[in-house]
Amino acid sequence: MTKSKQKNRIGLWAIVTIGLLAGAVLVGRRVFPPGRAESGKPNIIFILTDDLGYGDLGSYGQTLIKTPNLDRMAAEGIRFTDCYSGSTVCASARCGLMTGLHNGHAYIRTNSKPPDTPLRKQDETVAELLKSAGYSTGVIGKWGLGGAVSSGNPTRKGFDYSYCFLEHGEGDYFPTYLWRDEQPVLIRPGSYQQALFTDDAVQFIRRNHKHPFFLYLAYMVPHAPAGVPDEGPYKKMGWPKQDREYAAMISYMDRDVGHIFQTLKEMGLDDDTVVFFSSDNGPPRPDFFHSAGPLNGQKRSLYEGGIRIPMIVRWPGRITPGQVSNQPWAFWDFMPTAADIAGIGPPSGLDGISMLPTLTGVGQQAPHKPLYWEFYVTANSDFLQAVRMGKWKAIRDIRDGQVSLYDLDVDIGENTDVAAQHPDIIAGAVQLMKQEHTPCLTCGTGSEAFEEPIHNH
Fold first, then answer.
1. According to a count of CB atoms within 10 Å of the terminal CB, is the N or C end of the chain lower?
2. What is the span of the domain harbouring residue 438?
3. DSSP codes of every residue in 274-307
4. Is residue 2 assigned to a domain?
5. 296 φ/ψ angles, rounded to the nearest 5 degrees
6. CATH number at residue 376
7. Count of alpha carbons within 13 Å of 436, Cβ hemisphere only?
8. Domain presence at residue 138
């Protein structure tokens, strides 16, 4: 071990010890009496996975990895074929989910090296919005939008309760510590992070069964490097070890989602709770399990495989079971949708719209403006942009000014660039990219990006 690592570990244990002295200790499962929410407002749960691909679930075509609980969720709810993450990497995706802003307007637009770039005081979150409407709010899992003493700590962004690792660099499947609210807690050696988060989510639901709650359950699974107590049903498969572990992580997570639904039933909250399930971006390795399904690209690209993600929503009695919808929408639509579910108005200036009419079939779904993304490839501001306008998807690389165009109705795999045949569509796409981009305060790239030449073959 290097002297630097030794010093960091000593500092870490000092922090943990302070947290222990403050009385924060790991607890096991607790049992609470059953009951129903009394306010009439639905509970909202958003379950987010990390790097799960579009094709990693049975309901999206996966045949090797078993996901019976999530497949049942799709059968009992609505499965979206054209839902998109807020970004192609972790932090900016989560920022879009929490703030209702796309990459051209959000404060956090890329992953940063430790310490993570935190949300600012003025960046309103969906938790702050729902808390103002009388919801108890909790986040459990991976946060990634601000460290312990920053303005982005979840307890300072509307969450009454948090049990997380706060910064990306703290992620470990067998952690030595986690953060409960603003205090570090020591974890028993060998404890599996996924199980800790699920146990805590069950406790949160039981504690808050008498009043409406919003739970943001952000699992780290199946982010690499793999971590799982055992390979489960895949241990005898003749696959590479990393692929056996990848499959085991997803099936372990699927089992935990089943625990969440069982808890809702036990507490009499099933009909009172709308549950969203999704992933923060595409898979880093789409090859062995065809994790991107029919899509081209992967994590860190703006092709569909990097940003189109599974989205399943279940709400018994309000969402007709067994639906498959091709309505395009994205993470920045969650905040106005949650506001609509809670019966309140969303903040002004959001990029998203409420998808509640599509979910419930009640009312007219508002038309969605084109979807926009940008991604900062390197620290020196190499810069990608993408826009989806109906069936058209355009991608621009600022490094060479090249703009590609794909017709997603006939080419979901983005295999054939048709930019040369549609200069009018390209011109409209570039104008939208210019319109939706504002200077990135954390990336160092502004509107001067559009002074670069545009090439459309």
1. N
2. 371-451
3. EEEEEESS--S--STT-TTTT----TTSSSHHHH
4. no
5. -95, 145
6. 3.30.1120.10
7. 24
8. yes
pLDDT in tens, 69-78: 999 999 999 9
Q: Within a domain: residue 258?
A: yes
Q: Where are the beta strands (DSSP E) in 43-128?
A: 43-49, 78-80, 83-84
DSSP string computed for 52-73: --TTSSGGGT-SSS--HHHHHH
Q: Do 392 and 440 share a domain, yes or no? A: yes
Q: pLDDT digit string (tens) for 273-292? A: 999 999 999 999 999 999 99
Domain count, the chain: 2
Helix axes 193-207, 241-266, angle to 10 degrees: 10
Nearest residue to 331 (alpha-carbon basis) of 109, 100, 110, 137: 100
| d(C-alpha 93, C-alpha 100), whole Å | 11
**Residue pLDDT, tens place only, 214-252:** 999 999 999 999 999 999 999 999 999 999 999 999 999
Is-contact 91 99, C-beta < 8 A? no
Q: Using alpha carbons, select from 45, 118, 83, 101 the residue that is nearest to residue 314.
A: 45
DSSP assignment of 374-442 equals EEE-STT--EEEEEEETTEEEEEETTTTEEEEEETTT-TT-----GGG-HHHHHHHHHHHHHH----TT
CA distance to 198, 304, 369, per residue, from 387 (Å): 36, 11, 10
Query: d(Cα 102, Cα 85) in Å, to the nearest integer?
Result: 10
For the stretch 290-346, pLDDT in tens is: 999 999 999 999 999 999 999 999 999 999 999 999 999 999 999 999 999 999 999
User: Distance of CA 353 to CAs 312, 334, 362, Å?
Assistant: 18, 8, 15
Task: Give a yes or no: residue 307 inside a domain.
Answer: yes
Residues 6+ apart with CB under 8 A from 236: none
In a shared domain, residues 248 and 215:
yes
Distance CA 434, CA 412 (A): 25
SS3 111: coil
Residues 315 and 411 in one domain: no
Same domain, 293 and 383: no
Asked if 292 and 63 count as a contact pair (C-beta separation under 8 A), the reply is no
State the Cα–Cα distance between residues 46 and 44, nearest whole angstrom. Answer: 7
Q: What radius of gyration do the chain's Cα atoms show?
A: 21
pTM of the model as a whole = 0.90
Looking at the fold, whether 317 and 389 belong to one and the same domain comes out as: no
- Asked if residue 241 and residue 216 are part of one domain, the reply reads yes
How far apart CA 24 and CA 27 sit, in angstroms, is: 9
Residues 6+ apart with CB under 8 A from 320: 78, 361
CATH number at residue 221: 3.40.720.10
Burial bucket for residue 161 (CB in 10 Å: 0-12, 13-18, 19+): buried
